[in-house]
Write a structure and sequence with these properties.
single chain, 79% helix, 0% strand
């Protein structure tokens, strides 16, 4: 089968704007919005997210299995993609427009219901959509190229919403009473509306843009009578293996670290570095450059040194660099806040580091795609949906759990709910950095150690393809 056209790659990749927009909102803004703007206890916000994560553990493998075995005139994947568009967009809007006058306990359940709805329907879209990658090509190198489009658009689209928030929405909602629009509840309602429209449009563009490829995709296997127990047994048999569990555990920890960093990033830029909204917007704008960097670097790394070795090297550099500016501030070797130098140091360091982390994520996703043929060789069944359900789960659960940890970190170090910029003591800010640095570094170093157990390289992948080809003949 010929490789996908550039248009197909663009449509496939652009679909990740939906996940990126959802992700940016829930990772970067949700905790700050409910804790500092609405005034909820940060621990309750974190607990609400944790409850939603438990549902992910059930819904993700079911959606993956269902999409592998679904039959329709539109194939296995596209019906799910179309069906998710409206529920994701509508529920995403409402999480940014909570009712006024409700107690913390009532708002807790409000977040729980909407978070479960958003995360379940984003799975209904993201798992079948991402699972198209190993169906579009079996080539070891081209998979990294295709997934580079996916991750580029995911980061680019999600980051665009953050930049727009800081350079346009928050300044527009600044008032005499609320001089920093970042703390104006009305700003988030407008942000939620823009985000929901973006999610809806991105899903439809990706689904329609890849629709013509349906006849060339694999069909569902023959119908079988299956009990729930048999389904979960088959799921386990499909994903069982050293390489899968190594990649799954490592990625879960990596996304947990990413979620922790994301949940605290605007606390650090707002309180720790004391940046203005315009400076925060500029730092966030740097992630656009990171997306280009990571997207361009991953295919090169794949070709030159392979996915596993590349992930180990790139990951090690990125993971050490992630908390480095905060550590240097803790030991008092950086310029003072308010100087141009500290702004440029943080901007450049974060732009490079996020680019390397994006490269690592693309390599890990491409490594997951290579597990599809390994599973097929072992079980005789083609289960892209199952493997990418695992990928969706570890991404959502890891990042969500990282935000849960972030909420408890804020509580431990004494960041008061509703605190405005400049109202946190130097001791509280130092404690925030002192807890964050060793926590995130431990998570990231564990990733490097665990991913070394993944054992599929180019030669093994190509050997598996030959084995499957001989069986087909």
């Amino acid at each position: 089968m010929h490789g996908p056209s550039l248009w197909t790659k663009l449509a496939y990749g652009f679909g990740s704007v939906a996940y990126g927009t959802k992700d940016a909102g829930l990772k970067y803004f949700l905790l700050l919005f409910y804790a500092q703007v609405i005034g909820m206890d940060a621990r309750l916000v974190s607990l609400a997210i944790l409850v939603a994560l438990i549902f992910d553990a059930i819904s993700d493998p079911i959606v993956g299995y269902w999409s592998d075995n679904f039959r329709s005139k539109w194939g296995r994947r596209h019906p799910f993609m179309y069906a998710a568009a409206i529920p994701v967009a509508v529920s995403y809007y409402f999480i940014w427009t909570p009712p006024t006058g409700w107690s913390d306990e009532a708002l807790f359940w409000y977040i729980v219901v909407l978070a479960i709805t958003i995360r379940t329907f984003i799975t209904v879209y993201e798992t079948p959509s991402t699972a198209l990658a190993p169906e579009l090509t079996a080539d070891y190198d081209e998979r990294s190229s295709i997934l580079s489009f996916r991750y580029f658009f995911g980061w680019f689209g999600g980051n665009a919403m953050s930049v727009i928030a800081f350079v346009a929405i928050f300044p527009a909602f600044a008032t005499a009473a609320i001089t920093n629009g970042q703390f104006n509840q009305d700003a988030y309602a407008f942000y939620g509306l823009m985000g929901s429209i973006t999610i809806f449009v991105a899903i439809l563009i990706s689904a329609v843009g890849t629709h013509s490829y349906i006849p060339r995709l694999r069909s569902a296997p023959p119908k079988r009578d299956m009990t729930l127990k048999m389904i979960f047994k088959e799921i386990y048999q499909t994903i069982a293996g050293r390489s899968f569990f190594a990649l799954f555990a490592a990625s879960l920890l990596a996304f947990t670290a990413s979620g922790l960093s994301a949940g605290l990033i605007f606390y650090f830029t707002t309180y720790f570095w004391n940046f203005t909204p315009e400076q925060i917007g500029a730092v966030t704008f740097g992630v656009f450059l990171s997306a280009f960097m990571g997207g361009a670097l991953a295919p090169i790394v794949t070709r030159k040194i392979g996915k596993k070795r590349g992930a180990l090297i790139v990951g090690l550099v990125a993971f050490i660099g992630a908390p480095l500016p905060i550590f240097l501030r803790l030991i008092d070797v950086l310029p003072e806040n308010g100087t141009p130098e500290i702004f440029w140091i943080v901007l450049i360091a974060q732009t490079i580091d996020v680019g390397l982390i994006i490269c690592f994520q693309i390599l890990a996703a491409s490594m997951m795609a290579d597990l599809v043929e390994q599973g097929e060789a072992s079980t005789g069944k083609r289960s892209e949906g199952m493997f990418f359900a695992a990928a969706t789960f570890m991404r959502k659960f890891g990042e969500g759990f990282g935000i849960v940890i972030a909420g408890f970190v804020l509580s431990i170090v004494g960041v008061a709910s509703g605190a405005q910029q400049g109202e946190l003591s130097d001791e509280t800010l130092w404690n925030l950095g002192a807890v964050f640095v060793p926590t995130v570094l431990t998570l990231y170093m564990s990733v490097v150690a665990i991913i070394s157990f993944y054992d599929i390289d180019r030669a093994k992948h190509e050997k598996t393809l030959k084995t499957l080809a001989s069986r087909a003949n």
